[in-house]
Structure formats: structure tokens, C-alpha cells
Give the backbone structure.
Amino acid sequence: MNLEYLKKGLFGYTKSSVYQYLATLEEEFSSQLLKKEEQAQAAAQQYQEKISQLEQTLSETRKQLENQTKEQSLIAQTLMEAKRFAQNMQKEAEEKEKAYQEQWKAAMQKKEQELQTLDTQLKQIREMFGTMLHSLDEQAQSTQKQVQKLKESCPHKTITLLEQKNGEKDKRLL
């Protein structure tokens, strides 16, 4: 507490300097809280955009996977028909099918890894967002406790932080 701003009167500090000091404290706390809220909103918007991007990428990857599955199914049917028509080409067709299946499995594994990576990133973003919200909640509670302490330290429970020009007290009570 900075006591140098408080003016002393006959029986302690003057009410006006105490009111002014409390008003200054309230402005400082309000501006700090507003800055934190703006930062949190900006971060939340960035995380929402990142989540949207990741979800879109995940959707595209799933579509590619479905297309590859359909293509693989079509190729398998074609190879089966080729077996019926030509015994001589059976061996060559089996080798091609085996090579394609290995490539397809490798591609599937790669896509699965990408899906797992995207899922992990999404979980991390959600955790960071939850942690950030928890931190903001703790800061708000701390500020509320400080305001409550100020209320309790006032000689009168109905003391206000600001007075109006015409001498009436502000209707906002602590």
C-alpha cells in the first residue's frame, strides 16, 4: 500500500484521499482484468481457428482414405475378373496386387499416423484452452478477494469508490 498518496487529517487520513486512492486501485485492477480478458479472447479465437483448420484437414484426410478404400476394392474386383479370363496373366496380376496392397497399407499407416497426430494436437489445444480458462478464473477470483478485502477494511460497509460532483454518493456500492 502506498501511503504517500494519502493525506493526513486531524484524526488520521482524510476521506477524500482514501476515496481517491481506492478509486485509483479500482481503475488499475479493472484495466488489468480487461487486458487479461482481451488476451484470453484473442487466444481463444486463434485456438478456434486452429481447431477449424485441423478439423478440416481431418475431414479431407478421411475422404481421401475412403476414396483409396473404394479404389482398392475396385482394383481387387478387376484382378479377380482378370484371373478368370487369363491363366497366363494370373501370376503377373498377383504380383501387381501384392505390390499395390503394400503401398496401400503404407499409405494407410501414414494416414493413420497423420490422423493420430491431428487428434493429439487437437487434444493439446483443448487442454491449453482449458488451462487458460482455469487461469483466468483464478485471476478473477483473486481480484474478487482483493475487492472483498478492501470492502472489509473500510470503516463503513456502504462506502463507495467514487463520489458524484454534487456531493451525492455513487449508487455503486462495494
Residues 48-141 form one domain.
